[in-house]
Amino acid sequence: MGEDFKIAVIPGDGIGPEVVREALGVLEKIAVTSGHRFTTKELLAGGCAIDATGRPLPPETIAACRESDAVLLGAVGGGKWDGLPGDQRPEMALLGLRGQLGLYANLRPAFLYQQLKEACPLKPEIIGDQIDLMVVRELTGGIYFGPRGRSKQDSGEQAFDTEIYNEGEVERIARIAFDIARQRNSKVTSVDKANILESSRLWREVVIRVSQDFPEVKLNHLYVDNAAMQMVRDPKQFDVIVTSNLFGDILSDEAGMITGSIGMLPSASLGEGNFGLYEPVHGSAPDLAGKDQANPLATILSVAMMLRYSFNLSAEAAAIEQAVERVLAAGYRTGDIMSPGKTLVGTEQIGKLVTSFI
Ligand code: IPM
Ligand code: MG
Questions:
Q1: Ligand 1 pocket check: which of 249, 254, 267, 284 to mutate, most ligand atoms within 8 Å of Cβ?
Q2: Checking phi first, is residue 52 left (phi over 0); if not, alpha (psi -120 to 50) or beta?
Q3: pTM of the model
């Protein structure tokens, strides 16, 4: 007997709807091959929600997410809404979803497919055999959620944001990182700025304490500036990187770039229990929207992460990942990962190819 899973689907803006459409096509095939049922409900968030309801994250969207087993999100944002005040921008939908759904652990794997080695901007001797790392980013704390404000001073206007972490927040993200490292190559690199920031000193102390519960996992610490440099100097040294919200935002983009294309990178945002939100790392790319040129593979791979982390369907997740590899091995490419001699295809065609390879 197959199981029933409820998925809240938030296509969002720009290329969001087209990449989500392909990912849902792949999921339908998994339903057929596995016998499980996936019920989807489409919801508004981001710029399209601002246009339709006046706010980036309507309460009905949050309510429907809470009633689901997982959330699949395309992308939000676009130039059209850039002029809005900070607290009304489409990006607030993301922060609201993360904060209100308690999704504190953001997993961003950066994996260089053998078939895409040419797309990697690093020299072959730096790449070596493989780049395969996982950024574990704290997602509901730090400067993104800390006290902030603006005020008029005699000297002019001033503004501030606050980096703030408590022990509990660091401990739970550290545990996730060590747990994941145990299932990979047993190495955690904790990234901070403990030479300057008090919050980083606490971060480091707590990570060291948690590490004692995972004696089989190796731990080292890097300052964030050095980590950014090491990522392009010798990415092979990394297995799992655990870091704060802001540093993780920056380092995960850098990690993404060295795998060739941000169009290939999935992510999972997890809280307590099996619930999670899954989305491609890339943004809404308004310039590509509606042209059938966007790469849906990151969203398709996000569905694979959903199957693995929220639904406990590892075999089905692996089937999707293998289908993506086969499509690449067969030479099919979207524009962002195109190289000479390969076959250029559009969003819809590459989605159908993945489906047909399952
Ligand atoms: C990301 C994005 C978001 C972030 C923005 C759009 C709010 O850059 O998911 O990495 O900074 O977290
Ligand atoms: Mg980012």
A1: 249
A2: alpha
A3: 0.95
